[in-house]
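--- STAGE predict ---
source: upstream dedup step, 1 unique chain passed
mode: sequence only
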Amino acid sequence: MQAGRRTGKNVPHKVLRYFPLAPRLKRLFATSKTAKLMRWHQSGKSTDDNVMRHPVDGRAWKDFDSKHTEFADDVRNVRLGLAANGFNPFNNMSISYSMWPVVLTTYNLPPWLCMKPEYLMLSLLIPGPQFPGKDMDVFLRPLIEELNELWENGIDTRDASNDRKVFKMRAALLWTVNDFPARSSLSGWSGQGYKACPTCNENTPSMRVIGKTAYFGHRRFLPSTHRWRSNLDFDGRTDRKRPPRRFSSVDIMDQLRRVKTTIPGKHPNYGGVKRKRGDDELNWRKKSIFYELPYWAEIELKHNLDVMHIEKNICDSLLGTLMGDPHKSKDTDNARRDLQNLGIRSELHLYEDGNKLMKPAAEYTFSEANRRKFCRFVRSVKFPDGFAANLWKNVAQNDSRIVGLKSHDCHVIMQRLLPVGCRSLVNKTISSTIIELCTFFNQLCARTVNVTDMVKAQDQLVIILCKLERIFPPAFFDIMIHLVLHLPEEAILGGPVFMRWMYPFERYLKRLKDYVRNAAKPEGSISEGYVVDEALTFCSRYFDDIETRFNRPDRNDDGIHRTRRLFVFESQCKPMGK
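--- STAGE serialize ---
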């Protein structure tokens, strides 16, 4: 043995846990029940071209089938969606740890099943403790290789619903579902800076205000003859800019050819050196690994904008500003200085009173009395069981603030409470604009989406955003406010939102978190727990005479209890008490 040479076993710095996809897809065809359900997207799709209740009714699915007819001919070929999100596996949130599971869902299934946790498949478990960032593609490599194999060659699969005959099953990835920061890591388009919008691309409407970038200037989406184009109340200038053009797949590929190839890694010798992007690279940081899939460049909807996080961020901004919350309000001193710099809304400018700097009250902020009225209104609302959390717990004891709202709490407030609660507390111009925005989210999140409604909403949202620009200061308009403009178009492409947002995947992370038994090895605990749970789930599909997760009654299952002889006295509900 040479002197000075290290001995012993080498310990890897990180261990990536990969769960092969093909065996689990074959397992869906192993039982007759699930094998029949894998054909639902063909037999259950909407017969009305104007109504969408499943991604199969969206334009992106139809466009994919028209370009890949050989794949579409066999309805058993699998369409997949991918979601990736980071979470802290420990109950102690003071510990900084970010683990990234990559989860797949099968869109062949009916809409009431494909987002159930029993049908979500954990594919990758990217270890912590740091966010992978630009190195995400390194960890996605085994999944992309298997997806390429499933697309090009397929795999022999036995169909239990067709006399157990063997067929060649193929699979394709339709899109990804992520929050906006994770979307930037997967797509390669940076969600920061003047060109943060991935749809508007290089024509993103933005401006610099004190301390931040505001995505302000939605008049450019109006018709060129609209009277608001010449109005100086927005930013002190007229707007004659043309709307951003639509970028085709060919345009995107031309942009990606100009992006320099970077080496992944954090070490200075292996890609870790920060570099400044060239002007011709726009906001592209890299060419995503998904472009190694032969069909990816032609997909119309590659990365979904997550409605869950967009709605929560808008709710936080609206509520914080309306309530005058010092921590969440967008109506800051710098926001007032922005108005002064633009030379608009002089009644809101800061002024000095002796040695004090005074901030005039704005129309879009509740008075102290109205703030208490709104808090008492939220505290008094009663919801059906399971509809929403107890929101009265989020109202401060002195009825002055609403704190600690979760994503679903914001979902309920935006669509149910805020349109009603703000009507009598602010003037009609402000309340009607907020109500129109909340009505759009209610329409967008419906189980069945109407194409005509989404086309109309596209034009209405431009008007709504322009109204908001006349009400709130430019600092109010972060990227989440702007992204609302593109949600109707994505609904037309992808179908109903409830199958393309993060709610089911966020709930699934809670299940993975419950698997952690050894805090020293969280990834290993999750892997072992998931494999056991997956085996039990598959076995339970064969048990009909005992209670399993597939035949367990609902929590509020009433059933029919026939206790009367005359049908007019029969009760359709479960009796309570003796």
